[in-house]
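Changelog-adjacent note: as of this version, every example in the card shows the full chain rather than a window. The one below runs 248 residues end to end.
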Amino acid sequence: MLRLTGLNIVESKGALKDVYDGKVLINTVNAHSFNVAQKDKLFAEALKNGDYLIPDGASIIKACKWLKAKSQPKERIAGWDLFVFEMQRLKERSKKEDGRCLKVMFMGSSEKVLAKIRENAAVDYPTLDVVTYSPPYKPEFSDEDNNAIIKAINDANPDLLWIGMTAPKQEKWTFQHWNELKIHCHVGTIGAVFDFYAGTAKRAPQWWQDHSLEWLYRLLKEPKRMWRRYVLGNPLFVWNIVKERFCN
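Full-length structure tokens:
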């Protein structure tokens, strides 16, 4: 079970600049992932034991305030915000190092999506070397699959690594194999951001984001896929937070 009161959560976008250098795991938490973690012990452990956790949802911010949690995030930090910040930082670092070609790796998603990412990154981040790896599309990886993924990451030795296999799979995989990854860079588990950056999925317009309604936009766009997450999940999140305050 995951308890919000004890989590170390990044409190603002500005605080991202203070993330230390080296091998660092950055995960996100929102109402849906919090709900899933109540019954998925490995997922809960992955979220608790990463180096940084960012609040990808206004519900998390409000719940932390109501629970008087140890962390008091002041604003939502979406996976997209983390992506833009880290990519820009790597781009600036490349400039400071006399244009040395730094490497960013995208591990996850389909080859179709990854091809679009490479195409877009060539325009947006021309000084960065973009490496991609598309893992097999299956619920569970075999030992052979895992070894191949780990080898691809270690051989690439990136300066920034993105993992995108949707939650909770991406967080659990990265947590389970963290010690096998012989890398020295920031690692972010950002799921849907792969599709957003590739242009194969569209984020909610800015107004919806500013008013904490991105979840509603996604529900209206994909009701068959999203109704359980939001119609059932939002009340469940409220119930889980009430239980945490009064029953634990």
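Structural remarks: The CA atoms of residues 134 and 229 lie 26 Å apart.
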